[in-house]
Amino acid sequence: MIVGLGNPGREYADTRHNIGFRVVEACVAARGAAWEHRREFHADVARLRGAPDDLYALKPRTYMNESGEAVGAFCRFQRIEPAQVVVIYDELNLPFGRTKLSVTGSAGGHNGVASLLQHVGDGFRRFRIGIGPRHPPEIDLKDYVLGKFSSEQNQIYLQNQPEFLAGLDLLLTQGVAQAMNRLNRRPSSDDGSSNPTNV
Prior knowledge:
Layout: E1 2-4, H1 19-30, E2 36-38, E3 43-48, E4 55-60, H2 67-78, E5 86-95, E6 99-102, H3 111-119, E7 125-132, H4 141-145, H5 151-174, H6 176-183
């Protein structure tokens, strides 16, 4: 299962905190699938058919800090283990557009991940997409993550979206080790000051 994290509602569309929604929506569209609202799970669900296996895509319709309730309920119903779940979400500590894949660890201050750890358990694949650095530096954290993409950030996202989808396909077809080797590699030319297009 592929899960995108975000907040429901028009007011949160295109915010940095909803980059997980944006990527999973692009993944579903690329596979020609359709979303279905599943009220019993408080989630929108799509069935993706094709290689390597059929899988589900899910967007919780709870707010971010309750994401795990929707994901956990669906996993229990479908008997999906944490290791079979890929979660896409925003990461403030990564430069904008950079990806990093990990499997275990703390929530790192991300309320959606904390909820998943509580309701799903550890071991899910974490497909993190950078939304940092915070700018201006003195902006409140909540205001930054719930702010809209700048025009420059939106352009970086659009340029990188095909690579995000390719990274997901790599994870699904080749497994965690190969995907981590590819997605977590820093470009040798990146000194931290340029806009990353890492994958």
